[in-house]
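Researcher: Let's continue the batch. This sequence belongs to Sugar phosphate nucleotidyltransferase, and it's 336 residues. Same format as the previous ones, please.
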Amino acid sequence: MKAVIPLAGRGTRLYPQTHTKPKAMVRIAGKPILGHILASLADAGVDEAVLVVGGPMQTQIREYAEREFGDEFAFTFPEQVDPQGLGHAIHQAAPAVDGEPVIITLGDMLFEHGYGTFLDAHRSLDGVDASIGVKRVDEPSHYGVVDVAGDGSVRELVEKPDDPPSDRAISGVYVVEDSDALFDALAYLIDNDLRGAGDEFQLTDALQRMVETGSVLGTFDVEDWYDCGRPETLLEANEVLLASMETNGAGALTDAVVVPPVDMGEGVELTRSVVGPNVSLDDGVEIDDSVVQDSIVGRNAELSDVNLKESIIGDAATVRGEPRNLNVGDNSDLSL
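Model: Same format as before. Here are the structure tokens for Sugar phosphate nucleotidyltransferase:
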């Protein structure tokens, strides 16, 4: 089975972080988002990956994937030159997939449980051509939605409907046995210019086309997922992933306190500071006279005299506060 990961999106919801890197290359809990995805796929036994890339920063994805995971995956990198939606992105992978079964996962989604769990759930379904990870949500109109018949098969799929047919939201992971049927459906949409929500070619609409032409689709449950394309859920995913890791040592620690869990890259220097919990520090970070909690700090960033919480600091950024000298009396209540 091959993995298909669309990575050509511009990541506008993560600006300014994604002005200089693809969103899949934003680092959380020790590695880029893409690294967490590929590590989980490798654990599930997948060893071929089709990464759909695009835009001027795609080289970062190619180089990282081949450098860090070249021994675990055979990679191909089809290019989406003109982004026209998720369905259009997946369509670019057709020659590389070449009729084989695929697991499709979005390049900005992380899941609390690994892909092996999803593949096992898919294999437990009888006679399906594809299956879709779903979760019940309170506001299904914000998502792609699946309506399921009494026998468990998918009856209808619709993207961000005003009047949702169910509360089962599509979670962003798909397993497709009959990939030829999927790519035929995508080609039908594109050849006939049948654009869906956002005036784009939607994967949801292609899956609906599969249902209409006789394919049998099933579903499996996804307990929790994290949309790392938004700052607040990026920080939430960082916290969840750090909880399963051991705090590592810093390159230099001077009168500093580390409150687990914290992930530190190479060459990190902490001086007269308190860092943690739930902090991810990339290589070369320097923090002086500061308190940092629940945050992500990029490579070679410098923080001095700041008190940060729930923050994202980009690579090589410098953040300086203003040092204060205080003489505070008994029973004082002071906020700074």
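Researcher: Any comment?
Model: The first strand starts at residue 2 and ends at 6.
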